[in-house]
Design the sequence.
C-alpha cells in the first residue's frame, strides 16, 4: 500500500457529523466507484467530497497513475472552528447556537492487486458496522 497523494478541504461550512455520513460511504472504495457513488448522493457534503476526490485524481494523473488503480485508503473528517451566533426568541430573549465547520482529508493509494482492495473494503465495512452496533 503506497500512498500517492493527500488532498484536503479546510473550513467547510458543514457540520462534521453530517460530513462523516458521506465520508463513511466512500472510505475504502475504489476511486471510480467512490466518484460515481458521490455523484448520486443527495447531500451537501457529497458535492464537497466529490470536488476533493476529483482534485486528488487530477494530482495522481499528473504523476502518471490511472484512476482504476487507485482507492481511498484514508478519508477523515475533523471538526473545524465554531461560530457562535444568537437568534431572537420569544419575550425579547435570545438563544445561542453554533455554526460548525469541518476539515475533510482524503488520501489515495495504489492497489497492487484487486484482491487486496476487496479485503480492505471488507475490513472497513466490519469497522463501520461494529461502530454503529449492527451485526451481520
Sequence:
Amino acid at each position: 500500500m503506497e500512498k500517492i497523494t493527500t488532498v484536503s478541504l479546510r473550513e467547510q461550512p458543514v457540520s462534521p457529523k453530517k460530513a462523516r455520513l458521506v465520508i463513511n460511504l466512500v472510505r475504502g472504495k475504489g476511486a471510480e466507484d467512490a466518484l460515481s457513488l458521490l455523484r448520486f448522493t443527495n447531500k451537501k457534503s457529497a458535492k464537497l467530497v466529490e470536488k476533493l476526490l476529483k482534485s486528488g485524481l487530477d494530482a495522481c494523473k499528473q504523476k502518471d497513475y490511472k484512476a482504476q488503480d487507485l482507492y481511498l485508503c484514508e478519508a477523515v473528517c475533523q471538526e473545524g472552528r465554531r461560530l457562535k451566533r444568537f437568534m431572537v426568541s420569544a419575550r425579547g430573549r435570545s438563544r445561542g447556537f453554533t455554526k460548525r465547520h469541518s476539515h475533510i482529508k482524503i488520501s489515495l493509494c495504489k492497489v497492487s492487486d484487486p484482491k487486496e482492495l476487496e479485503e480492505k473494503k471488507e475490513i472497513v465495512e466490519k469497522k463501520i458496522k461494529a461502530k454503529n452496533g449492527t451485526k451481520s
